[in-house]
Amino acid sequence: MLITCPYCGPRNVSEYTYQGDGNRTRPDPASTDQAAWNEYVYDRLNPAGDHHEIWQHSGGCRAHLRVTRNTLTHVVTEVSFARDAGHRKSERHRKPGAHA
Q1: Which GO terms describe its molecular function (predicted)?
Q2: Which of 19, 26, 36, 69 could anchor a disulfide with 54, C-beta 3.0 to 4.6 Å?
């Protein structure tokens, strides 16, 4: 599988570290709501199809990336910096067809 880093270009998935589901919202760090923390830490969905994930380019520039990957085909359709998610859509790097 290839992931196209906005800094480094297309790289093999072996250069990256999976950081988790990109759709989850962390509870307020000061929260003492045990149910909210249990849900955040333990509950996971297992979607079939396009899914937002966070990856770190640990073998390269070390940037954290938001990747849209199809969980059935492993085709990566979009890559952007995680820090820009939802803020500057014009700077997203769309790479349709980048796959294994």
Answers
A1: sarcosine oxidase activity
A2: 19
